[in-house]
Each structure stands twice: as structure tokens, then as C-alpha cells.
Specification:
Radius of gyration: 24 Å
CATH topology of the largest domain: TIM Barrel
Number of helices: 21
CATH architecture of the largest domain: Alpha-Beta Barrel
Number of domains: 2
Strand content: 5-15%
Strand order of the largest sheet: 12-17-16-15-13-14
Helix content: 25-40%
Distance between the termini: 36 Å
Bound molecules: beta-D-glucopyranose
Length: 625
Amino acid sequence: MPDCVAASRREILAGVSASALTLCTFTNSGAQTAKSIWPKVRPAIAASVDMEAKITALMARMNVFQKVGQMVQPEIKNISPDDAAKYHIGSVLSGGGSWPTGEVDGPLAGWLSLANMFYGASMDTGDSRLAIPILWGTDAVHGHNNVMGATIFPHNIGLGAANNPGLMRDIGTVTAREVAVTGIDWTFAPAVSVAKDSRWGRTYESFSSDPKVVANLAKEFVLGLQGHPALGNFLSQQKVIGTAKHFIGDGGTTMGIDQGDAEVSEEELYKNHGQGYVQTIGAGVQTVMASFSSWNGEKLHGHKYLLTDVLKIQMGFDGFVIGDWNGHEQVKTCSASSCSNAINAGVDMIMVPEAWKAFLDNTIRQVKAGVIPMARIDDAVRRILRVKFRSGMFDDGKPTAHELAGRAKLIGHADHRALARQAVRESLVLLKNEAALPLSPDSSVIVTGPGADNPNMQAGGWTLDWQGRDVNSKYYKGFTTVKAAFERSDFTVMRDEAARADAAIFVFGETPYAEMDGGLDSLDFDVDLSAIKAFKLRGMKVISIYLGGRPRGLDAVIDMSDAFIAAWLPGSEGGVGLVDVMGGQAYDFKGRLPFDWPHSSDSNFGEGAPRHARGYGLSYAKIAP
Ligand code: BGC
Ligand code: BGC
């Protein structure tokens, strides 16, 4: 059984290279028990005797009511700071499209002032020895994406195409900084999902179908986000807590059904879906989110073997397990407002956005009735307090007093945008190029198609709101669309679409979606080809750019185009990053497919040979893909 070996401090300080922090090896043996399949992991941060003693002392002063309160996470829309204090609530979340003022364009300061109010309430208990700062979590999954004006990075699928560990660490660093400006402590990222069927509507949250790529990029992101003890910056005030999600097998469900069932052997679960946990836990990730999905028919939120025996005992994860949005209600015998089974299985903090009050009452009753052992509550609370102590929040004071708090200039800062632009450049995958690219500097172009001037399509889901299509694009502040980027470049952009330019740039893609809404039966994508045909008839080169969250069956578009670029969901700098590489003066295409790319009409999904296999991608320089 592999023991994950921590890199020596000297090694880390000298290089801080990707390999220096490779904490674990990938191996696997056969037998069906936790010990023989899952490795022991040595987390980057070990439990300290002093801290555990502090936690013990604090817990000795807490009653059941105060303990259970720590385990409950309502949504900010559904709880006031006063109630959070009254019920000793341990954490709140803001979900997709939940803004503190209720308006997407509310003042940036609104985030920080609400954080201050929750913090103030949690500390003002009347008995300072019981004051426990409240944690605020949010989905900063491609930048601080619920905040207007924030830097929006490409979604994970694009970062998987880029596959640059150093870049991932920097993105973690920058994301933490923008989150810290708003007074928030915790992001529900990275997803370490390994999407095995691209019909899954969350494929774009997955870096790749290759577990090693996922594990390595997620690890680097965590190191940037949380820092690392050997770097002297672990959960400093510039850092935020990360979450490896969704444990486990979320990307392996049959037919890619969201919240479905991963019908795979335990070896496969470990080999394909477990690597991201091994690496992020090794890197010190402090929270793990349970998955909505099942493993062989049993919901993860009620899976004691996986949550407790495998994750906590065998793999040594000593942070806390957060439930997903009412994920517990899908466990047998549970409802949104009551679920002893999830707690007994090992979920430490329950994300119960609405029914939190009833959940709290029911849980206290279940503890008193002996349905939930007090020892389980104590373990959960110890884990939550451990993360809170490690994060420094007991000492850091109110959110407004933190180092980066309120530094509005950091939101969407030029340096952050430059990093996102680099990420875009590296994420683009060139699938076809018949002498259409690079564009010569004196080219004239027409930039058209449904994605040409469409920030929503460029960003995808989890941007300003949940599904990514409901907030008007005028609120996508700081976005440069493909059309706008060309207009700002040295290329001649012809506004008359009936004109004859050297090239037509046809930008199209998927209508934004997130979980649930994004599920597909077939990857086939019907695209209106009339514009492409008309350009071809005029003797123009057509360069098609696809904006979307997964590879789609697009044979007709690809065949008809002279060049085809998969740009994924590139975010706020999508336009400028594309122009950088299409100009070809300074940058080449580097991205390689993170997933197989299907043919159209591949109705027997996964059975036919792909049009292009994972790893494919062209460059200007004649490097074999
Ligand atoms: C998603 C999670 C997310 C949570 C909070 C859930 O529906 O599955 O990925 O972190 O909501 O928004
Ligand atoms: C929230 C998301 C959440 C989802 C779960 C939405 O209303 O905004 O954050 O993940 O509900 O169903």
C-alpha cells in the first residue's frame, strides 16, 4: 500500500515545482477493503496537540444546541445575522446568483458588510468564551464568479486543455485574492470530477477524463488557493479554504446522468474518481463536499463506508465533509429537514439552504433520542472547529479588518485579467486548419454568429447566476467578447456582413447551463449552417469558433470550415485570448483535447471511434499532436 510521502521542506522551498509537491503515488491493489484499495494520505497540515487541546476546551463549554448549530449551513437569503447568532449557526453559503443586496449590480461593499454582520453576530454571544466565528462559503469555481466585475477564468474543461500546473496554482492564488476582498472565507472548488460521459451537464467543471490530469491540476489549484505550510502561507489572510468535490464518482454516473448512479467497481472508483482526493487531501484541502450521486445504488450522502471508513479513516482526511445543496434529502428515510443517516454516515456540516431551522430542531431531537450518537456530533464539531482554527479566523478579527478586505481594485485587476488571458490562450484547441490561420496582420475579417458578441455564452454556467443565462449581458462587466476584441485589434473588421472580407469568423456555441439543465441524450449539435455556406459561396475562408462546455458532434460545421477552434467557456478574457493566438505573431495553439471529441450521430455513445481522441490538437509549429 503506498504511503504518500511529503516532499521535504528543502525541496519545496527550493523548487516549488509541480513534482516537488507530488505527495502520493498512484497504485492500486485488488482486494475489496478500504485498506487494500485506498491509500493512506499524509495531509500537508497535521493535527497539532495544542490546537486539539484548544478545541477540547471550547467544546467542553458547548451544549448540544450550540454544537448542532455549528453543523448547519443555511443560505444567506434565508437567514439573518441575528438568527445565525441565536442558533449558533456554524456557516452560511451564498449560492449561484445569490448576491448580498439581492441585486447583481449592488455595491461591491455589500459583500463585505454582510460578512461583517454575520461575523459580528457570531462573536457577540454574551459569553466571549463561546464566540465562534461563522464561515461563509461560495462557489468561486472560475474566479469569484458571483461578483460583478470579477476576473472570470475559463471553466475547468479549458484549464484541462491547457494542462499547465503552474498556471493552475496562479489561478488559485488570484481566485483566493478576489474572494478575500469580499470577506468570504471559503470556496466550493476545485471540482475533482472525472467526467466519463460528456452528456453530463457538468462536464465543463471537469478538467479531463484523465484522472491524473484532474488530480494534478486540482492539487495545484488548492496550493494556490489555500497556500501550503512549507510555503509559509497556509490559510494566510490572502488565502481561502478550498473544497474537493463531489465525493465521489460524480463524473462516473451511468449515461452521465446528473445526480445519477456510478455503477463501477471499487477499484475503478478509486482509480478513476479517487485520484483527485488523494492529491488534494495531500495538498491540505480542508473540506470535501459529498456528491448528490450514488455508488452502486447508494447515495453518497448516506454512504458511511465511503465517507467515514475510506475518506476519513483510511485516507486520513481530518477536515470536514460538507453536504451538497439538500443532498441529504435523497438519502433513504430522509427529507430536507431531517436526516440522521447523513450525519451518522459522516457528513459533518449539512447544506440546508432553506429548511435549516427544522433541520436543527430535528437533529437535536435525534441526538437526545440516541439516534445520532453524541460521539458523532463531537467528531463533526471537532472537525469544523479544527478548520476554523487552522484558517486563523479566531485571531483575524472582523472581515473588514482582513488584509485584502474591501480592496476593490483587486476585483478584476489588470494583472488578474492578464493571467486569465494567458489561460485562454493555452486552453484553445485547434481541431482543423487548412491554411486559414494564423490571420495575416493585414487581414480583413467579418466576426459573426450567435457567440460573437455574447458574454453569457463565453462564460457558461456559474457566472453571475446559477445557470449563466438569466443575468443580462450588460452586467458582465469587464468582459471582452470576440467581436469587441477584434474591433480593438489591428485587424480590419468589416461591419457589413454581406461584404467580402479575407475571412469570416463564425462564433457559435451552447446556450449556457449548469447542473440539471445541461444533461443531454446525444452529443449531436444542430447548427444553422446558412451563414457558413454564404461565406463559402463568396469565396471566403471560414474560421469557426466553438464556445461550449463539452465536445459535441459537429461534423458538418468542422467539415465546412477552413479552421475550427474549440474555445470552451473561456470567460471574461475569451475574446482577447482568441485574438492573441489567431494572430499567430507571438502565440501558438497549445491546448490539447481533455476529452475525446465525437463524430456526429454517434448515437451509441462511446462505442464508435471518436473523431479526435483525447490529446489531439494542432499547432502552427509542426509539432506532432
Ligand atoms: C452544487 C454544488 C455547489 C452547491 C452550492 C450544488 O447544487 O452541486 O457544486 O457547490 O450547489 O451552490
Ligand atoms: C442555487 C445554486 C444551487 C442550486 C441547487 C440554485 O438555486 O443558486 O447555488 O446549486 O439551486 O439546486
